[in-house]
């Protein structure tokens, strides 16, 4: 019963963020200016999600060291991504370097 | 470009989502594996009805720590606030869609669905079926998340210490790959740089509020840089 309450509350809260703006979207128009601002949303959010997972692998403090396999994997992914612009390749090389490095430093 | 149809857009959207699905598979399986404080059915229900990866993970962590129920819901709210930015960004492209489309694409609005769809919406061609592309990507993402949760639940015990393998890093590299196409001019670079640096300083904020603060700082920095360049020109 508690589980039911928890999950339905989480579902309502989540849907309550995602849906209302879309539901009302027919009733307003966004200015050209505001649309330009929104163009920064995807890269800014993605970066804000990723950077702590890479540089703070333990969750609270910076690990700027060669012992941080996530950092090495991320640098490799960034390099391959900029070079080849292929998402699957970026994921593959990033994971491979991360695993390889982890095996070496541990 | 050849003539698009709803069908061709739908399947193109599925194909466009494949790399992100690859990145999300380990995440979904780990979620199913780690769900020790929830029953089998509740875990499946959470994936089916909440459908928000990071919020689901955080909820598990809070449950394990014995956090009070209202705090878990509050945290879910804050963690998912970024979806508000996504919804607003989609307004120009979905405002003329029928209510059912808004309902479905709203419910299926995730980081992945948004990132794949917005790239398609931004493309210059005038296909009238770009929302079908969005639907295709979102459908595949949803189906995959349910399947991976189930796999994690049933096989979790067979694969001990799945987290030590670092499979969660797959999402990080996926997102890195998603950012790269945006790095095309100075304001974008500034936005990404500021969002990244701020995310480190704001990481300690409660309820993952830092993600939202850092994103907004990055967006503001990008806009400011764009203005400055325009003034100079």
Structure commentary:
The complex is a heterodimer of chains A (106) and B (233). By secondary structure, chain A is an all-alpha fold. Chain A has one domain. Chain A is built from 6 helices and no strands. Chain A has helices spanning 2-18, 20-23, 32-38, 41-55, 69-84, 87-105. In chain A, helix 5 (69-84) packs antiparallel against helix 6. The longest helix of chain A is centred in the last third of the chain and has 19 residues, at 87-105. By secondary structure, chain B is mainly alpha-helical. Chain B has 2 domains: 6-179, no CATH class; 183-233. Chain B is built from 11 helices and no strands. The mean pLDDT of chain B is 91.
Keywords, separated by commas or semicolons:
heterodimer, A: 106 residues, 74% helix, 0% strand, B: 233 residues, mainly alpha, 2 domains, 75% helix
Into which percent range does the helicity of residues of chain A fall?
A: over 70%
Count of all domains of chain A = 1
By oligomeric state, this entry counts as: heterodimer
Query: Based on DSSP secondary structure assignment, what is the total number of beta strands of chain A?
Result: 0
Number of domains of chain B: 2
The biggest beta sheet of chain B reads: none
Overall mean pLDDT of chain B: 91
Which whole number gives the mean pLDDT of chain A? 93
Count helical runs of chain A. Answer: 6
Give the class of chain A from helix and strand content and strand pairing: mainly alpha
- What is the β-strand count of chain B? 0
Order of helices and strands of chain A: HHHHHH
The percentage of residues in β strands of chain B lies in: under 5%
Tertiary shape of chain A = extended
